[in-house]
Amino acid sequence: MTIFNFGSINLDHLYQLDHFVRPGETIASNRYQCLLGGKGANQSVALAKAGAKVKHVGAIHRNDQAIIEQLQTLGVATELIAQIDVPTGHAIIQLDKGAENAIILYQGANHALTEQQVDQVLSQAEVGDWVLLQNETNLIDYIVRQAKQHQLKVAFNPAPMDVVLAKSVLNDIDLLIVNEVEAMDLLDVPTVDEAIKALPIHYPELSVLMTLGKAGVHYFSQQNSLKVEAFRVNAVDTTAAGDTFIGYCLAALSTLSVFDDDSLLNALQRACAASAICVTRLGAAESIPTAQEVADFLQQNKTP
């Protein structure tokens, strides 16, 4: 079972500050780091550390070979990453004392995927493999259509949210991964409860993984409904928490032939543990724990 992750790759310029910069203000940063990031890269690293076979599909500038080497070191297959003459995507991240962040994103090479590249990648896939997508690359609708023609399963994390795009592909998605606000925006309803009721009605074949921040996660479909609380930890940086959760959860879900409550519970708890460890560390990909660290954490902490 292979997961083909069509995802962004960024260089994250991380600045630690006392507070977010206000209009007209210039302030000094307490610390600066340049780190591997991007939702796609983060999720690929989490998948690999969770034990999944993941092939990352994306693009970077040909001079950024260090990114390829780092992903390979972290267990991600990189042969499907194009090296082109467009600048690598990057993010400018402000991190305040409360572990909250504000991010400016430059798309760069992340929006340089071609239909030919997509076709070449999917021709290698086998029935039952997964395609993972986030909304930080181009050609989302094309990738989804082609994936379904190859009888692949598709997981979509539509962040940053584009309601029109997300709705256009939902009928071909197997697993939708959203937070509360994204779910409400997608259904155009004022409450989370209304979104939870509406999604299975409008999209009966869809499974939904709804992240609830500090409250945990809610997985639901026509067949299942399961909530898991988050672990309580002292957070220092929430940058890659959601991506870590997604990678660990999909790594487990992709191995299931039957989505029974016990298997789902184990997958969600393991993903919550991975996310909890992640927020206690600075950075994006570098903060994602290993499978052994997650196992040790679960041994040491009561089930949420």
Oligomer: single chain
- The ordered string of helix (H) and strand (E) elements is EEEHEHEEEHEHEHEHHEEEHHH
**How are the strands of the biggest sheet laid out side by side?**
5-4-1-8-9-10-11-12-13
Poorly predicted runs of 5 or more residues: none
Strand content: 15-25%
Tell me the radius of gyration: 18 Å
Q: For the terminal residues, how far apart are their CA atoms?
A: 30 Å
Mean of residue pLDDT values: 94
Largest sheet: 9 strands, mixed
Q: Counting H and I runs of at least 4 residues, what is the number of helices?
A: 10
Percent of residues in helices: 25-40%
Briefly note the structural class of the backbone.
alpha/beta
The geometry reads as: globular
- Number of beta-strand segments: 13
List the helices and strands and how they pair.
Elements lengths: L1 E5 L3 E7 L14 E7 L1 H11 L3 E9 L3 H9 L7 E4 L4 E7 L5 E6 L8 H8 L7 E5 L5 H10 L3 E5 L5 H7 L5 E5 H8 L4 H11 L4 E5 L5 E4 L4 E4 L12 H13 L7 H18 L12 H10 L4
Parallel strand pairs: 1-4, 1-8, 2-6, 4-5, 8-9, 9-10, 10-11
Antiparallel strand pairs: 2-3, 6-7, 11-12, 12-13
Q: What would your notes on this structure say?
A:
The protein is α/β, with parallel strands linked by helices and 304 residues long. 35% of the residues lie in helices and 24% in strands. It is built from ten helices and 13 strands. The protein has a nine-stranded mixed beta sheet with strand order 5-4-1-8-9-10-11-12-13, with helices on both faces. Strands 3-2-6-7 form a four-stranded mixed beta sheet. It is globular. The protein starts with a strand and ends with a helix. The mean pLDDT is 94.
